[in-house]
Amino acid sequence: MKAFQEFTKGIIKENPVFVMALGLCPTLAVSTSVQNAIGMGAAATFVLVCSNIFISLLKNLIPSKVRIPCFILVIASFVTIVDMTMEAYVPPLHKSLGIFIPLIVVNCIILGRAEAFASKNGVFKSVLDGLGMGLGFMLAIMVIASIREILGTGTLLNIHLLPASYKPMIVAILPPGAFITIGLLMGLLNIVQNKKKSKAN
Amino acid sequence: MDFSTLFIIIIGSIFINNFVLSRFLGLCPYIGVSKKMDSALGMGMAVIFVMTMASTITWLIYTFFLNEATSIFGIDLTFLRTIAFILSIAVLVQFVEMVIKKTAPELYKALGIYLPLITTNCAVLGVSLLNINENYNFIESIVNGAAAGVGFTLVLVLMAGIRERLEYSKVPKSMKGMPISFIVAGCMALAFLGFSGMKF
Lengths: 201, 200
Description:
Chain A is mainly α. In chain A, 68% of the residues lie in helices and 2% in strands. The longest helix of chain A is centred in the C-terminal third of the chain and has 31 residues, at 123-153.
């Protein structure tokens, strides 16, 4: 049961984007469409799970003074694998994610989990933690991307949702839309949390 | 050397494709270090310095070691790009930190705490990768790195000014802190969108 909690905590309670405000750059940059969001989320989850496995296996071998460069090296290797695999099999997605695939290396979520969790826990728990955090990240980008895509183009995953008479709010898929969407979503989450707190009292 | 291309790169990186507001690079320090004006200025100066240095070094590494056509080894090592860049940036930041600590303790006091943060600042790795993707030559890369740093500092300082005022304004309870900062950033991005009309 406890292992299950390691998995679920990343999805809502400790959501990396909304609660901990980590990994903001890719979240805002690739959330122009749900398709990009899923691609980015999957790539980051893969890197997160693999680097968590590796680092928890190597945790006793890495001297603590040089641990950060070692973590970065492990993460960079997996990012290179993802980068090349995506370039080979899904070139259009690779092109639209652009430099944000190599930039997974400096995504604070991945280094943060390596430092805070994988370097202190066993392999099994680290896998669950990586999966949970990765899915939480993917969920967060997908929520933002759905809002932006529906408002900005009137479609969701290229399916027309809104009637043809809807005039797309183009600003939603432009950069300002990303900032305003995440600001409003964080405010909404705060309202929900404040209500929960006042109920508990 | 064509001076007008450099001018276009400078204006482009500072205003039109501002790293924070239009490319979404370096958002963590943008939200994290923009609470006070002097820390924003310190961070900005450190970023300008590191980005210029990183653009120089990563361009040299890419051209002389990784790229097949111009490499001294004559083999294609471009797949090592990400690893080589992030390692050289980490080493560079560490080195800069040590040099500043020895030679300019005053400057170290002002910038010291921001330097370790810069290694994981995606704007630094971002500008190195963009220089390669855009096929910039040596001079263009350095200029682009410096201009991107200036653009970052500009919006960081603007944001710090706004946030210092936000402290004293009435903000709904649930929007305090991060949410309102994002809304402000959105308004700034909207304003910067106006620069995209400056086509050369």
